[in-house]
Protein backbone atom coordinates (compact mmCIF):
# COMPACT_ATOMS: atom_id res chain seq x y z
CA UNK A 1 0.00 0.00 0.00
CA UNK A 2 2.94 2.35 0.61
CA UNK A 3 4.51 1.51 -2.76
CA UNK A 4 2.82 4.44 -4.42
CA UNK A 5 4.71 6.79 -2.08
CA UNK A 6 8.02 5.20 -3.04
CA UNK A 7 7.05 5.38 -6.70
CA UNK A 8 6.07 9.04 -6.41
CA UNK A 9 9.35 9.85 -4.67
CA UNK A 10 11.23 7.97 -7.39
CA UNK A 11 9.48 10.02 -10.07
CA UNK A 12 10.25 13.22 -8.14
CA UNK A 13 13.93 12.28 -7.96
CA UNK A 14 14.06 11.60 -11.70
CA UNK A 15 12.41 14.96 -12.44
CA UNK A 16 14.82 16.81 -10.13
CA UNK A 17 17.82 15.11 -11.77
CA UNK A 18 16.52 16.11 -15.22
CA UNK A 19 16.05 19.73 -14.10
CA UNK A 20 19.56 19.74 -12.61
CA UNK A 21 21.08 18.45 -15.86
CA UNK A 22 19.27 21.13 -17.90
CA UNK A 23 20.53 23.76 -15.47
CA UNK A 24 24.12 22.51 -15.81
CA UNK A 25 23.89 22.57 -19.61
CA UNK A 26 22.46 26.10 -19.63
CA UNK A 27 25.13 27.31 -17.21
CA UNK A 28 27.88 25.78 -19.36
CA UNK A 29 26.47 27.36 -22.51
CA UNK A 30 26.18 30.79 -20.85
CA UNK A 31 29.77 30.54 -19.60
CA UNK A 32 30.96 29.58 -23.10
CA UNK A 33 28.97 32.47 -24.57
CA UNK A 34 30.55 34.95 -22.14
CA UNK A 35 34.04 33.62 -22.86
CA UNK A 36 33.37 33.79 -26.58
CA UNK A 37 32.35 37.43 -26.26
CA UNK A 38 35.47 38.19 -24.26
CA UNK A 39 37.88 36.38 -26.57
CA UNK A 40 36.50 37.13 -30.04
CA UNK A 41 36.12 40.81 -30.94
CA UNK A 42 34.09 40.19 -34.12
CA UNK A 43 31.47 38.15 -32.28
CA UNK A 44 31.37 40.77 -29.53
CA UNK A 45 30.68 43.57 -32.02
CA UNK A 46 27.99 41.56 -33.84
CA UNK A 47 26.22 40.58 -30.61
CA UNK A 48 26.42 44.14 -29.27
CA UNK A 49 24.84 45.49 -32.46
CA UNK A 50 22.08 42.85 -32.29
CA UNK A 51 21.41 43.70 -28.64
CA UNK A 52 21.07 47.40 -29.45
CA UNK A 53 18.66 46.54 -32.30
CA UNK A 54 16.65 44.21 -30.05
CA UNK A 55 16.32 46.83 -27.31
CA UNK A 56 15.46 49.54 -29.84
CA UNK A 57 12.65 47.46 -31.39
CA UNK A 58 11.17 46.33 -28.08
CA UNK A 59 7.94 47.97 -26.91
CA UNK A 60 8.32 47.43 -23.15
CA UNK A 61 6.86 50.11 -20.93
CA UNK A 62 8.99 49.37 -17.86
CA UNK A 63 12.70 48.75 -17.40
CA UNK A 64 12.14 45.45 -15.59
CA UNK A 65 10.04 44.09 -18.48
CA UNK A 66 12.82 44.96 -20.91
CA UNK A 67 15.45 43.39 -18.65
CA UNK A 68 13.47 40.14 -18.42
CA UNK A 69 13.02 39.99 -22.20
CA UNK A 70 16.73 40.62 -22.76
CA UNK A 71 17.68 38.01 -20.17
CA UNK A 72 15.47 35.39 -21.84
CA UNK A 73 16.74 36.31 -25.32
CA UNK A 74 20.39 36.04 -24.24
CA UNK A 75 19.74 32.66 -22.64
CA UNK A 76 18.14 31.38 -25.84
CA UNK A 77 20.97 32.79 -27.93
CA UNK A 78 23.59 31.17 -25.71
CA UNK A 79 21.81 27.83 -26.04
CA UNK A 80 21.84 28.18 -29.83
CA UNK A 81 25.66 28.13 -29.86
CA UNK A 82 25.78 24.35 -29.67
CA UNK A 83 29.44 23.86 -30.55
CA UNK A 84 30.78 26.91 -28.73
CA UNK A 85 32.67 24.75 -26.23
CA UNK A 86 35.18 23.64 -28.83
CA UNK A 87 35.61 27.15 -30.20
CA UNK A 88 36.14 28.58 -26.72
CA UNK A 89 38.60 25.82 -25.86
CA UNK A 90 40.59 26.64 -28.98
CA UNK A 91 40.57 30.37 -28.22
CA UNK A 92 41.65 29.75 -24.64
CA UNK A 93 44.45 27.48 -25.85
CA UNK A 94 45.62 30.22 -28.22
CA UNK A 95 45.71 32.64 -25.30
CA UNK A 96 47.74 30.14 -23.27
CA UNK A 97 50.18 29.70 -26.15
CA UNK A 98 50.61 33.46 -26.37
CA UNK A 99 49.02 33.85 -29.79
CA UNK A 100 45.54 35.24 -29.26
CA UNK A 101 43.83 35.97 -32.56
CA UNK A 102 41.69 38.99 -31.75
CA UNK A 103 42.57 40.09 -28.23
CA UNK A 104 44.32 43.37 -27.85
How many helices? 4
- Secondary structural class: mainly alpha
Rounded mean pLDDT is: 89
Number of beta strands: 0
How far do the termini sit from each other?
68 Å
The residue ranges in which pLDDT falls below 50 over 5 or more consecutive positions are none
Helix fraction, binned, reads over 70%
Q: What is the H/E string?
A: HHHH
Q: Please tell me how large the radius of gyration is.
A: 20 Å
Report the major sheet.
Answer: none
Strand content: under 5%
Outline the structure in words.
- The chain has helices at 3-39, 41-57, 63-80, 84-96.
- It has four helices and no strands.
- It has 104 residues and is an all-alpha fold.
Quick take:
The protein is mainly alpha-helical.
Topology (elements, then pairings):
Blueprint: H1 3-39, H2 41-57, H3 63-80, H4 84-96
Helix pairs in contact: 1-2, 1-4
Which key phrases capture this entry?
single chain; 104 residues
Amino acid sequence: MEWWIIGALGVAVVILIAIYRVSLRENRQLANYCLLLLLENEIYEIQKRKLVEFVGKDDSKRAIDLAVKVYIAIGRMAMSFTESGLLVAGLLWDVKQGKPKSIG
